[in-house]
Structure formats: structure tokens, C-alpha cells
């Protein structure tokens, strides 16, 4: 360890909802010796990066916000990207987090120094920092995924991923191809359809989609929420209760599936009258197997005369368009990839070395095992937020994030109060937790999807199989018997 180098209580990597929540939790506990390393020039994570037209949350604003910081000023029931980013900035400013954030400091590597009980963290810019605990708050969805289509490098038009939107290109009068039809595409496609000459959506599989019924909040609504804060809490509670309905879709409950599949198909048939298009947009798998989407605008947009939905599959890309597996040549000026993110492996491409130089890559080579999705054996004082098996497919992930911030703060306090060198989860507890999660997954609808970002091979690696309340109970208190402690 470098002489006179400051040793922080914690280093947080990432300044999205997870990182900000973690920092606020530490400060509330009186822990002020920490840094937040952020690779970009601004905070915000997902809500900083995704600026495509129509970017919006698919969780109601009252629920997609911190429980400790209800906000009366939401413009819509389901908020747009700019206001969500502003909400995050507000939380950072209110809690004086700017003094802790180091911008344009991209995590490069880290190694645990067992003798000192500290992590040495290095950045790609050549800086080095030391901390008792290391907290990865980088999320699951930040590596844009672009399929390796043959010939894609030969395309002479403009091309980009939806998470890296090129706002300098005017799409007016352009022939546009959109590859993908999931969460991002259903938001930006309706926004660009009025401008483009033609739009072709290249769809691999149809998605189950429900009406969103978004609505604006007027000044009267906002004054009401500000005067009576309990109304926001009620909205949060009622939204969370309603989302319990979606939890049943993730299982094998035939009644709920039949009911909501009927709602989805009715929504589709109201907007789409063409029998051929209707067939293309009707899913052939059970509802809940992949992410259920919400939109009032997507189906009407696809029914426009200048829009085509192609389900033939992409054979290869040429310099002036796409050739499908059926042999059709579709000329294009712009190709937009709405193909999601590389969610696996977790901590993709990061050099993290724990005890005896064990790398996280090697530790997870056979199986990604964790305890509570937060800690992993052989990596002391190392914590993850929004880690393996902690994504909620039926409600707001912020419910999980706040629980994780609480649990990690408890661990860091435990280390500090007992003057421990480190705490390391026991392999047996980790294996038991992972085994129980995997067993429960066998009863979930996610196993019935051939392709999903939830899966790594046949293993459901991203999602939590239970409700958020169950996870809250598990993370409320640190079970010290699950850890080895070193003085």
C-alpha cells in the first residue's frame, strides 16, 4: 500500500440509481469516507445514456423513485428520461454527493490486499485508490449488444444502437431499419414513424404488450401531492400491489396468464386490423416468459402505411441495406439496433482479484454463485448492487436496490465497529442460496423462452424468483453465521 495514501471506508463504482442510493445510505449512517468512481462526465447511468426519442420508464413514477425521497413534481404517471435524470441529480445535490464523485474515472482493475484488509482500485486513466470495501454499482444493462451480422461493417449508411442515439442525424425522409422490437424499440419507433419515408422493423419474435395508459399530472395534481405527501405513498403502495398481478404471470398460474393474455390480444386487435400483421404480432409462447411490455403507441405505429414488420430473419447486411433469409433485399439509409444489452457474464470484462489472486472470471467460470446476489466467496469486503438474481421482472428494481444498500451499509458498519480486516461469505451459504434460487426458477415461465437476456444458457441468472418483500426480509439483518471474519 502506498505511503500516506488515504484509505477510504468504501469505493462505489457507478453513479446510477444503485450508486446514488448506496452513497446516501452510507451518509445516513454517518460514513463519509467514500468515493464514487464514474466513467462518464455526468451521473445517471442508464438514464444518462439512453436518450433515444420517447425514452420513458415502464414503472410508474411513484414507484420508480426512492422510498425516502418521494417527489411531488412528476410531470407524468410514467416519467420521461429527462425528468428521471433530473431526479437523480436532485438526490445527489441534496445529499452533497458531488464532493464524493470523481467523473471520467473508469474502473480498470482491483485486487484485494489480504494483509491490509483493503482493496486497491485502479482506473483506466492511471489513478489508484484504496478502500476497505469495494461496491460495484454498475448495473446489468450497460454494454450495448450488437449482433455480429455478416457484412454489417460494409453498410454505407448511418447506424447506431438505441442506447447510443445519434441526434445529429435527421431521419426525415430516410429509409430506416430497426433491428429488434423490445423495450426500447416500442418507445422510439412511434416517435420516428411520422418523419421517415419508410420503416422496417426486423422482428425475431412477437412480444406480449399491454396498454400503458400514461397520463399527465397537472398543477393541481402536483399541489395535491405536495400538500398531502401520503397520497404519493398511497400511489406507491397501490402500484406495488398491482404489480403483484405481474408476479403471478412469471409463474405457472394458468388463470392469470389467460386473463392477461386476453387483455394483451384485445389491445392488439384494437389497433391492428390487417390479418397478416396481426399474425406477426401475436406471440407463440406463454405470457411472462420474457419481459411484458407496456405501450399505447407501438401497435398504432406499426399499422401505418410506411411501416413494415419483417419476420423472415436477417441473412446479411450489404452496403445499402439488409437481405433477409427469404432472399428479399430491403434498401435502407439508416440501421438502428434495438437489440438490448450484454447482461452476462456479470461484471463483464472487469479485472477483479480476491484472495490468493483469484479472479472473478475464474471464480464464476463454472457457475455464477453468490449469496443474496450481493457477496461472493473468496472476495472479502466486496459487494454488488443489482447483481446476479436480483432483477425484478414484475415491479420496480429500486425496491431491491434500497434493500441492498441497507444490507451493504450494515456489513461496512460491522467491519468498522469490530475493527475487522475483512468478512468473506462462506462457500456453503453461497451454494445453498444459489441452489435454492435455481430450484425455484424451474417453476417460472422464464424457462419457457428460447432466447432471453434473463438467461445464461439454460440458467436464469438475472431474475429474483420471489417478491421484493421476501428479499427485504432476507437483507434486513446480516446473518453473521454466513461469514468468515478476519481480525
Automatic annotation (TrEMBL):
Superkingdom of the source species: Bacteria
Q: Enumerate the SUPFAM superfamilies for this protein.
A: FAD/NAD(P)-binding domain
Alphabetically list the UniProt keywords.
Monooxygenase, Oxidoreductase
**Pfam name, any one:** Pyr_redox_3
Q: Which GO terms describe its molecular function?
A: monooxygenase activity
Q: Which InterPro entries match?
A: FAD-bind_Monooxygenase_sf (IPR051209), FAD/NAD-bd_sf (IPR036188)
Signal peptide range in chain numbering:
none
Q: Which PANTHER family match?
A: FAD_NAD(P)-BINDING DOMAIN-CONTAINING PROTEIN-RELATED (PTHR42877:SF4), L-ORNITHINE N(5)-MONOOXYGENASE-RELATED (PTHR42877)
Q: What is this protein called?
A: 4-hydroxyacetophenone monooxygenase
Instruction: Identify the taxonomic lineage of the organism of origin.
Output: Bacteria, Pseudomonadati, Bacteroidota, Flavobacteriia, Flavobacteriales
